[in-house]
Structures are given as structure tokens and as C-alpha cells.
Design goal:
mainly beta, 4-stranded mixed beta sheet, two-stranded antiparallel sheet
């Protein structure tokens, strides 16, 4: 009985799981450049989506694990800086393509006559108060990407993750329970 168990242990040690951080994006000092003109076609918004490069997209049910970390000050007041980080981990067995550029202006082609489209995700913190009540505690942060804009997308292999460091102004929260 011990030999199969020992062989399995050796096999697991010889082939460790590949779990690693793929990217780190610091948005704590970001000055956003606005686009000059909107795209004439609709762009993906409101959810993580991708496609065209063999990677999975959100409609395939690809699970992403989001972990918020960073310890805000306990005496945080409205108008003060709220800094936190979000770890976005691909927990599926397929690669996942993710928008990764904080500058919407980077999605526009140089030629103003050329049409364009892009993907977007939004990251925001919400306080859930129960009974279906929730409130945002800071403005959302947006990331953009397009297969036509070099470096605007990252590909997370299974087990890989990316970290986004964010700084937003803490919003006043009126609690009425």
C-alpha cells in the first residue's frame, strides 16, 4: 500500500503547480488622459470579456477570483485617500484575456478616420449593508483593452494573477438602518 502513495508524492513534487503573479498595475498616481472621440461602434462594458485569441471569455463561465487587500485607516473620513489592492486570479483551466490599460486615450487609433472598439472592466468597492442595501465607498476605476492596442491586454494562464493597486477618494456614507 505504501508504494503507490510514495510514487504519487514524488510525482507531485516533480511537477509543482505553476501559480505566479503575472502583472502589477499601480494606479495610485494615475492622471487619466481622455479620448478625443468616441468609437462609432459599441464597445464591451460592464463585465470582463475577451475573445479572438483563443482565450476564454466571461460568457464561457471562466471563474476569476477577486481578493481585496490593504488595510484602510480605521478613522477614514470622506474626501480622504482610500488605498487598496485587488488581486485578479484565473482559477480556471483555460487562459483568460483581461483589459489592462488605464488610459482610454490609448484605445484610439492615430488615424481619426479609423473606427475602433475596446473592452473595459470596472473595479469598485461596495459596502453591503444587508437587506439588499449596498453603497459605493469610492469611485470606480476602469481598465481598457483592445487586440489592436499593443500592451492593453494581459493573458492570465491558469493559476496566474494580476494585482491592481488603487487610490480613490473615500465617499461619505450615510447609514440608515
Amino acid at each position: 500500500m505504501r508504494r503507490p502513495y510514495l510514487a504519487a508524492s514524488i510525482m507531485l513534487a516533480a511537477f509543482p503547480a505553476v501559480c505566479q503573479q503575472r502583472a502589477d498595475l499601480d494606479l495610485t498616481q494615475l492622471a487619466v488622459r481622455q479620448r478625443q472621440r468616441p468609437p462609432s461602434s459599441s464597445s464591451g462594458a460592464g463585465s470582463v470579456s475577451s475573445g479572438g485569441d483563443g482565450a476564454a471569455d466571461a460568457s464561457d463561465g471562466v471563474p476569476l477570483r477577486l481578493v481585496v487587500f490593504g488595510t484602510p485607516k480605521s478613522d477614514l473620513r470622506a474626501g480622504q485617500d482610500l488605498r487598496y489592492s485587488v488581486r485578479i486570479e484565473n482559477t480556471s483551466n483555460r487562459p483568460f484575456s483581461l483589459p489592462w490599460d488605464p488610459q482610454i486615450a490609448d484605445m484610439e487609433p492615430q488615424d481619426p478616420t479609423q473606427d475602433y472598439a475596446y473592452l473595459t472592466i470596472s473595479i469598485s468597492l461596495h459596502l453591503i449593508l444587508g437587506r439588499g442595501t449596498e453603497t459605493a465607498i469610492g469611485a470606480p476605476v476602469h481598465l481598457f483593452g483592445s487586440p489592436h492596442s499593443k500592451g492593453s491586454m494581459i493573458l492570465l494562464a491558469p493559476g496566474e494573477w494580476a494585482v491592481v493597486r488603487i487610490s480613490v477618494l473615500f465617499q461619505d456614507i450615510s447609514l440608515t438602518l
